[in-house]
Amino acid sequence: MNHINDTGNDVVVDVRDLKINIHLEEGTLTAVRGIDFTIKKGETLGLVGESGCGKSLTSKAILGINDRKCKAEGEVFFTTTTNGTVDLFQLDPRGKEIRGVRGKQISMIFQEPMVAFSPMYTIGNQINECTRLHITKDKKKSKEISLEMMKKVGIANAEKRYDQYPHEFSGGMLQRALIAMALVCKPKLLIADEPTTALDVTIQAQILELMKELQKDIGMAILFITHDLGTVAKMCDRVAVMYLGKIVETAPVEEIYANPQHPYTKGLIGSVHKIGTKKDKLFSIEGTVPLALNLPEGCGFYERCNERIEGLCNVKEPLPESIKDGHILCCHAHRKDKSSEGTKVSTEPIKKETLAKKEAQPAEKAKQANMEPVGTKKAGVQAGVTADIMNPVLETAKKAEGMSGEIGTAYQEGGKNE
Ligand SMILES: Nc1ncnc2c1ncn2[C@@H]1O[C@H](COP(=O)(O)OP(=O)(O)OP(=O)(O)O)[C@@H](O)[C@H]1O
Ligand code: SF4
Ligand SMILES: [Mg+2]
């Protein structure tokens, strides 16, 4: 496979050819199919993609905390504070070395906060465990640090909340407690899996601001998983777009909004509502993700793709290619010599009825259908993509940024919890 990772000195994590197979009774599901990415010191990489494409599995694999039935292969090089760069997959999963990394050097905000807390201990106790283990053994000092972080993430009445149990917290509050636990040790790498989805917008802005501040202070690298493209524009330096267990496109954030190349990325960006425009219907990507148990040959997006090339895309899997500085793409449509291999057959995704009839359709007719060349204006407009999409998204993000200081603080001081 093409190796496309950055191996510079300030790389904090370097994931190479990560594959995750899940062994089920029905067979082996290849949920993550060989992905590569790096994150540098002080950098935020956004990981976006449809539900079930493998984002959470990827993030948990870095820490080695997936279910036993999920087997990860590949390499995860992490630059530790004490032992230089190590491949985390080579460490004893229960050993001292990995325990010194988890929680202290790499911490994670889980998508479901409830799974991160034990119902048997108070919230304060659990946050404090991290502080005591990794920062100071001094009980008083440790409690002070934990309480300070609880206040910073907007937990009002933190002293009282400190002694409460997880079931006494609402979902949003628990999410904030989890964020406090993840940030309290000032990790080198923060993995944030949908960190603010359960929170209202004002507290979201406040938490995102806190992450950015901490990032500035300690140069924390962030892997930021989200469905919210507005948050991506606000938080991320680069974006990796995932589809069916593969990273299909990676680029700096401005580039991905202004110049998306993969048809799936175009669809994702086209489905964002633009401020100041009136649209009866937002763009949607037709069809559903194929089952990873029964993977199609060639490109996994073929049946939903409006730029597919029959005879090429359904036969040969596209490999990552660098198309511009920092812009990596996995798609045959970009190939200059595509006319020599296969034929562009349609600008519409394959509909279910068409799929049923496909077998009976003569090859000649299929070739004549919609011969719009790939990458024409029409194809772009169909996907709802215009170069100015970035502006409204960035505008919204900027507004949220402006709000965060005042409203977030007012919330905290007003004693409201959510
Ligand atoms: N423990 C597990 N056992 C069986 N299948 C699993 C397990 N964990 C994940 N999967 C499957 O692996 C695929 C990827 O799951 P993952 O949780 O990584 O998706 P995701 O991209 O995080 O989705 P979402 O955006 O909904 O959180 C899905 O098909 C999911 O059903
Ligand atoms: S053009 Fe081909 S390779 Fe590219 S996304 Fe569509 S089906 Fe996949
Ligand atoms: Mg997930």
Labels describing this entry:
single chain, 418 residues, alpha/beta, 8-stranded mixed β-sheet, 14 strands, globular, disordered C terminus, binds adenosine-5'-triphosphate, binds iron/sulfur cluster, binds magnesium ion
Write the layout of secondary structure elements.
Elements: E1 11-24, E2 27-40, E3 44-49, H1 55-63, E4 70-79, E5 85-87, H2 96-101, E6 106-109, H3 123-134, H4 139-152, H5 158-162, H6 171-183, E7 189-193, H7 201-218, E8 221-225, H8 229-235, E9 238-243, E10 246-252, H9 253-258, H10 263-270, E11 309-310, E12 321-324, E13 327-329, E14 343-344, H11 352-358, H12 363-368, H13 377-382, H14 390-414
Helix pairs in contact: 3-4, 3-6, 4-6, 7-14, 8-14
The protein binds adenosine-5'-triphosphate, iron/sulfur cluster and magnesium ion (MG).
Explain how this protein is built.
This protein has 418 residues and is of the alpha/beta class. It contains 14 helices and 14 strands. It has an 8-stranded mixed β-sheet with strand order 6-7-8-3-9-10-13-12, with helices on both faces. A 4-stranded antiparallel β-sheet has the order 2-1-4-5, covered by helices on one side. Residues 352-418 have low confidence and may be disordered. Iron/sulfur cluster is lined by residues 262-263, 299, 301-302, 305, 307-309, 313, 318, 331-333.
